[in-house]
Amino acid sequence: MAFESLSDRLQATMKKIRGRGKVSEADVKEMTREIRLALLEADVNFKVVKSFVKRVQERAVGQEVLKSLTPGQQVIKVVQEELTDLMGGEQTKLNLALKPPTVLLFVGLQGAGKTTSAAKLANYIRKTHNKKPMMIAADIYRPAAIKQLQTLGGQLNIPVFSLGDQISPVEIVRQGMEQAKADHHDLILIDTAGRLHIDEALMDELDQIKSVSHPDEIFLVVDAMTGQDAVNVATSFNERLDLTGVIMTKLDGDTRGGAALSIRSVTGTPIKFVGMGEKMDALEPFHPDRMASRILG
Ligand code: GDP
What we know:
Layout: H1 4-18, H2 25-41, H3 46-60, H4 63-66, H5 71-86, E1 102-107, H6 114-129, E2 133-138, H7 145-156, E3 160-161, H8 169-182, E4 187-192, H9 200-213, E5 217-223, H10 228-241, E6 245-249, H11 258-267, E7 271-275, E8 283-285, H12 288-296
Parallel strand pairs: 1-4, 1-5, 2-3, 2-4, 5-6, 6-7
Antiparallel strand pairs: 7-8
The protein binds guanosine-5'-diphosphate.
Protein name: Signal recognition particle protein
GO biological process, one term: SRP-dependent cotranslational protein targeting to membrane
Subcellular location: Cytoplasm
């Protein structure tokens, strides 16, 4: 299960302080030391850990705890709030175009879960917002990527626009946008190529696709299992493309949690959805407060 070890360690730490009628500075020091180690072990970015622990420490020895009738619980509330904040605070809503169609661009490295997430999200938004989606297959490099999107589209009964793999992705997107408008689709999802590594050619191509499609959301799809690599990937993509959100996949796996806890803080880009499995309904909006509650038990 995701976050299992982190969750166990933080819960053990919180348990020690929960019932306290008084919390001394030494207690806080001991607690924050344990939190720090637990976060580092969960592969959370060290700068993120440092500032997180500092904030918890300041608040836990502050007035809100001192004046509280139940200081132990108050300290736990502080940790919970800071953990929520770390992951973005409020849930970040999907940005839909005021004037349709809404265009969603999916970018990321190969194998992160782009194609799957595009199909899942098309299905999700169709249900929740009553939209008429169309997907554009612009990954011409990975063998079978187009076929994979077509298969998923077929299962979900969502049309997929493709021009094969002999035409430039930018041209595919240009023509796909025309087609979607002609067919009155109010939601367009563009699946782009992911490479094994970030390279200039990939970024240039994505930049051009961005210029011709004017996306309302640029989602970076990252695999939670890749830890701090996911955070580095997010930093690079964000510098070039100005991401609007992250979709973090494979949170159903046994990730330690480092990427999920660091990515917002390091890149400023919020996680908007999480992938919880391979099935088409295994996608959920991301709620930082619920995730923090889940971790702290
Ligand atoms: P792409 O190369 O980025 O388009 O990646 P794909 O969409 O082909 O996904 C790569 C693999 O990850 C596939 O086998 C997917 O079924 C799997 N996958 C995607 N999202 C999730 C998820 O949230 N959980 C799990 N367990 N597997 C996922």
